[in-house]
Design a protein that fits this description.
354 residues; alpha/beta; Aspartate Aminotransferase, domain 1; Aspartate Aminotransferase, domain 2; 2 domains; 7-stranded mixed sheet; 4-stranded antiparallel sheet; 14 helices; 17% strand; globular; binds pyridoxal-5'-phosphate; L-threonine aldolase; lyase; PyrdxlP-dep_Trfase_small; PyrdxlP-dep_Trfase_major; ArAA_b-elim_lyase/Thr_aldolase
């Protein structure tokens, strides 16, 4: 058995830091459904502050954050535009439709995860006034775009989608599960990056390494609506300060260090690119993900199984793509070990000529 695991399947595997667990134990608590948990309020205010919005609302997951935000914007029977490869469309059990009563309009994204104006325009009904058509209410954009390889979209690219939404009377939601990865990679203030959005959700439980939670931010009136939907969905948590305390430590200590994850991912990508039988998907700017495929005789399942036996865990993403994600529990030594394990598995798979 390998002495330790190099967990590269996802940044959701991060475990809380010692400072987080200490803060969780010490946090002042109250009943957050009454709005009386001081640690939750502190996290919500700090989140809103960081992202330049009026208020915030802690929810148990990114999925619930997206659902509560979009349901607050969009009455039942209206529609939401989201990328065909987006988390909302691909990985959230179609809650927008099933729970929110919304029609989902999947939009083709380009190789950077952008929703281009021509694709958005093509999804609009021809005549807004005609009662037979759905009423488009929300556009949701992912930043970074997970299935595009974690590429960060720029301030201008985000603002392009905001302009489309505004022009067509729609609200603009940012699924910013990894918005701080985007801000750090681009070197911009996160508040500037999300300034054009009506609402943003970000995950505490991914690269920021907190165990649980997402925060939705937006106007004070919008957040009141989110609180109501959150309660309806069963996400009203009582002494949630236990969770929020780790989130506060995450915001204080884990944002700037995302740059290390990005550097480790760059090292991993460069090391993979020179291994035999590996094709690394290029990205115009890397955050914490590396997507690649194998061109030799090994199937992806065989490769994952073989590296896993040596303690290096990788994910298969579908569409024939393998993925490695760097995070706080993976350091430069782990990256070197992952490369050495992957290299030896690939070399062993090459038939020896005699
Ligand atoms: C992970 C993720 C979510 C959902 O978050 P959960 O906490 O897993 O529900 C939403 N959007 C994106 C882009 C994500 O990566």
């Amino acid at each position: 058995m390998p002495s330790s695991i190099v967990e590269l399947r996802s940044d959701t595997f991060t475990t809380p830091t010692a400072a987080m667990t200490a803060a969780m134990v010490a946090a002042p608590l109250g009943d957050d459904v009454y709005g009386e948990d001081p640690t939750v309020r502190a996290l919500e205010e700090r989140s809103a502050d960081l992202l330049g919005k009026q208020d915030g609302c802690l929810v148990p997951s990114g999925t619930m954050a997206n659902l509560a935000a979009v349901m607050t914007h969009a009455p039942r029977g209206t529609s939401i535009f989201a990328g065909r490869e987006s988390d909302i469309y691909a990985y959230e059990a179609h809650g927008m439709s099933v729970v929110g009563g919304l029609a989902m309009e999947p939009i083709e994204t380009d190789e950077h995860g952008r929703l281009r104006e021509d694709s958005l325009l093509a999804a609009l009904p021809e005549d807004h006034g005609d009662p037979q058509f759905a009423i488009p209410a929300v556009v949701s954009l992912e930043n970074t775009a997970n299935r595009a390889g974690g590429v960060p979209l720029t301030v201008a690219e985000v603002a392009d989608v905001a302009r489309f939404a505004r022009r067509h009377g729609m609200r603009f939601h940012l699924d910013g599960a990894r918005i701080f990865n985007a801000a750090v990679a681009l070197g911009v203030d996160p508040a500037v990056l999300v300034a054009s959005a009506d609402s943003v959700q970000f995950c505490l439980s991914k690269g920021l390494a907190a165990p649980i939670g997402s925060v939705v931010v937006g106007s004070a009136e919008f957040i009141n609506g989110v609180r109501r939907i959150r309660k309806m969905l069963g996400g009203g948590m009582r002494q949630a300060g236990v969770v929020a305390a780790a989130g506060l430590v995450a915001l204080d200590t884990m944002i700037d260090r995302l740059a290390e994850d990005h550097a480790n991912a760059a090292t991993l990508a460069a090391g993979l690119a020179i291994l035999p039988g590996v094709e690394v998907e290029p990205v115009r700017l890397r955050t914490n993900m590396v997507r690649f495929r194998l061109t030799g005789s090994l199937t992806h399942a065989e490769f994952i199984e073989a590296t896993g036996r040596q303690g290096v865990r990788l994910a298969e993403l579908g569409h024939g793509v393998l993925r490695a994600v760097t995070h706080n529990d993976v350091d430069a030594t782990d990256i070197a070990r992952a490369l050495s394990v992957m290299g030896s598995v690939l070399r062993e798979s090459v038939p020896v000529l005699v």
